[in-house]
Amino acid sequence: MATLRDIMTPGPVTVDGQATLKEVATLMLEQDIGAVLVMNGDRPTGIITDRDIVIRAVAYGHDYGTAVTDYTTGDVFTMDANTTVEEAAEEMGRKQLRRLPVTDGGRVIGIVSLGDLAVRALGDADEEALKGVSIPNNS
Fold it and tell me: 47 has which bridge partners?
């Protein structure tokens, strides 16, 4: 059975909470990525996406020098690298996650996106995750 370690993108791009929107947007451009993990030491405290920058900051005319912590999605849910792809897909669907940081011994070592599930995973795991993310959460 495939695990998250098998399909993750290793070494996710990270910044500390003092990074500015401009710095993060520049990293996204240079690395050709759509999400950056915000860290406090070894602990992820948030994630910011290109969409977060546009919808939460640019659309309101906010200063690009503002710290990213004002625009991140907090309470980062992670899963261990040895978790099966199927288990991860179920959790991503249940929690409506598009990106999942992967840990080993509590340290972030990679990230899995819905795209990784769709392109790299075998079986219907990606379909389950897509269903969960696509269905509005009424709670």
Answer: 37, 73
